[in-house]
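just leaving the lab so this will be short. below you get a single protein, a line of residues and a line of whole numbers that encode the local backbone shape. id like you to explain what the token line says about the fold, in plain words if possible. thanks a lot i owe you, the record is right below:

…
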Amino acid sequence: MKMFLTRIGFGSHVVITGDVTQIDLPSDKPSGLKEALRILDRIDDIAICRLTGADVVRHALVQKIIAAYEQDDKQREKHAAAAAKKPAARKTTVRKKA
């Protein structure tokens, strides 16, 4: 992504589309799209449009599917936040007498 973005010429207009929910890279590989969104969000001359299920103009069933996945994402984030706040359980070992 960086290689592409650093080669934009004078008078150019560029549109990059992507869906961060459909990244199929291994978890240890960084997403160029996610990095670009994070890094470039602070630049005034760059507009980032984030679309939601309400922006989908497709079959009503597709909108329901998107809503279900968005709800699942919220639940996972909620559970992850709760787990992060919870102290780790202490592991106890029971030994038998010989």
